[in-house]
């Protein structure tokens, strides 16, 4: 039996370097708030409890995590990381197991790393605390860990309080700390604030455990996994790293990316096998692309389902609720919203399809517009199987075009069209032979005087 896990995520700080009205931990990476990436990792690690410690802008954080079964622990004054962690105690009165304390601005912490820390606590050397360490290229002002080759910690020290020799140590403290709940609360209560910052330091629980004669150990991980995000530039760098990894994964799973560095995925994009993605494609949330589909260059796709072998773009925009059937086609400068295209249906050029149902094999001519909105309400357009909509038609919803019907080019259709009928909505054409020539002769005579 493994110990139950509780996450204690500290997010009470202001995150001032972000210069934002939005709380730092809610800034998105791959279209998902960074805090939610971290919560996903704890879910994947099977965490039984998740508590977020909030202070500054707590309403924003609460609103973002409330639907996810996360508990909220307020910290009214930011007195330090140990004080913040202690605020989670009430939310975890009934919890007994391993608590993992970490920071809301390290979204890339992996489930496997959480599992490694928990496992390390059950090591035969019975450590009381396991902390996650890393060796960044630039150790900046991170807290330092002084440990032996086996990871047994001798001392931890905050940068502000460290000697020059200690600052020269490359092993840094990520802040991610695993400790049994039965040990955590008493240790946190003993932490004082007699230090350079006058704060209650979380790493002081390690110092206290060592003073008690207990063991504390460091588990190491890649710097990229735990490096914090404090500014817009660091956010952009984190996004770039996430995207690079996702592109690699898409290719490893059998998709071809012609210019991988120009394709932008969302956290939940699903891409099948033998999918071809051309350059400059942007995926918003909620997209699934089935096997053998082709996404041509410069397309913007969100909330859409693209069926097997379907073709999208170049320059297509699929908005939420676009569902493209097998082998259907959506071509250049076509926008599709809340519309289902049946198998093999085509809208190849310059079209808007909104709130529509389009039958299999239907052909939507260039410049067709579903007029779905009257400024107050939205209405539906239904186009039957095999129907043919002539170019530059306006279909004024609600309207139904029957299966196999043909709408003549340039028609503004306001009434239903029966199956297999022809609908023409345009004035009769008049033709006057020789009129052009006579007009020119008359006008040039007039001009000469
Ligand atoms: C902390 C660690 C340091 C570590 C580094 C890793 C301490 C004392 N130091 O330093 O060893 O190398 O992180 O990034 O823990 N927070 C609260 N309430 C508070 C104070 C902080 O919720 O009262 C939250 C902040 O919102 C932030 C996190 O805790 O998300 C870390 O606080 P921060 O002030 O950034 O700590 P560092 O000085 O970076
Ligand atoms: Mg920090």
The biggest beta sheet is recorded as: 20 strands, parallel
Annotated CATH homologous superfamily of the largest domain: Spore Coat Polysaccharide Biosynthesis Protein SpsA, Chain A
Identify every distinct bound molecule in the structure, by name, code or SMILES: uridine-diphosphate-N-acetylglucosamine, magnesium ion
| Average pLDDT taken over every residue | 97
How is this structure best described in words?
With 449 residues, the protein is an alpha/beta fold. The chain has 2 domains: 5-226, Spore Coat Polysaccharide Biosynthesis Protein SpsA, Chain A, CATH 3.90.550.10; 246-423, Hexapeptide repeat proteins (UDP N-Acetylglucosamine Acyltransferase, domain 1, 3 Solenoid), CATH 2.160.10.10. Helices cover 22% and strands 29% of the residues. The protein contains 10 helices and 34 strands. The protein has a 20-stranded parallel β-sheet that branches. A 7-stranded mixed β-sheet has the order 5-4-1-6-10-7-11. The chain has a 3-stranded parallel β-sheet with strand order 27-30-33, with no helix packed on it. A hairpin with a 2-residue loop joins strand 2 and strand 3. Helix 6 crosses helix 7 (204-211). The longest helix has 21 residues, at 232-252. Bound molecules: uridine-diphosphate-N-acetylglucosamine and magnesium ion (MG). Uridine-diphosphate-N-acetylglucosamine (UD1) is lined by residues 10-13, 53, 75, 78-81, 83-84, 103-105, 142-143, 158, 172-175, 201-203, 228.
């Amino acid at each position: 039996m493994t110990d139950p896990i509780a996450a204690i995520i500290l997010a009470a700080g202001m995150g001032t370097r972000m210069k934002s009205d939005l709380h730092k931990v809610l800034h998105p990476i791959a279209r998902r708030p960074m805090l939610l990436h971290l919560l996903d990792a704890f879910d994947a690690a099977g965490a039984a409890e998740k508590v977020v410690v909030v202070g500054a802008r707590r309403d924003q954080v609460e609103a973002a995590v409330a639907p996810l079964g996360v508990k909220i622990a307020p910290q009214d004054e930011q007195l330090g990381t140990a004080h913040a962690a202690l605020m989670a105690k009430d939310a975890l009165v009934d919890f007994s197991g391993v608590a993992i304390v970490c920071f809301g601005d390290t979204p890339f912490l992996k489930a496997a790393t959480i599992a490694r820390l928990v496992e390390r606590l059950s090591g035969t050397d019975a450590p009381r605390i396991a902390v996650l360490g890393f060796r960044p290229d630039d150790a900046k002002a991170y807290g330092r860990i002084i440990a032996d080759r086996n990871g047994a910690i001798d001392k931890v020290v905050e940068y502000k309080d460290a000697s020059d020799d200690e600052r020269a140590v490359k092993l840094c403290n990520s802040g991610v700390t695993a400790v049994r709940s039965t040990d955590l609360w008493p240790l946190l209560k003993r932490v004082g604030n007699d230090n350079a910052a006058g704060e209650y330091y979380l790493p002081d629980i390690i110092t206290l455990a060592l003073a008690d004669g207990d063991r504390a150990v460091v588990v190491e991980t890649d710097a990229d996994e735990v490096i914090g995000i404090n500014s817009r530039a660091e956010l952009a760098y984190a996004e770039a790293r996430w995207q690079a990894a996702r592109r690699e994964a898409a290719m490893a799973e059998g998709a071809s990316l012609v210019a991988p560095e120009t394709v932008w995925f969302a956290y939940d994009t699903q891409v099948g096998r033998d999918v071809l993605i051309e350059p400059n494609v942007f995926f918003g949330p909620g997209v699934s692309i089935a096997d053998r589909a082709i996404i041509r260059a410069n397309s913007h796709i969100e909330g859409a389902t693209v069926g097997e072998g379907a073709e999208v773009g170049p320059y297509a925009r699929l908005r939420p609720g676009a569902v493209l059937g097998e082998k259907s086609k959506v071509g250049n400068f076509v926008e599709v919203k809340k519309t289902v295209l049946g198998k093999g249906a085509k809208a190849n050029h310059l079209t808007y399809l909104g709130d529509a149902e389009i039958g299999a094999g239907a052909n939507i001519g260039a410049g067709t517009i579903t007029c779905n909105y009257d400024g107050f309400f939205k209405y539906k357009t239904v186009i039957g199987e095999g129907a043919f909509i002539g170019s530059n038609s306006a279909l004024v919803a609600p309207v139904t075009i029957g299966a196999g019907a043909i709408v003549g080019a340039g028609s503004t259709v306001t009434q239903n069209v029966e199956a297999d009928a022809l609908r023409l909505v345009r004035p009769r054409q008049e033709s006057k032979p020789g009129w052009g020539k006579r007009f020119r002769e008359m006008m040039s005579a007039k001009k000469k005087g």
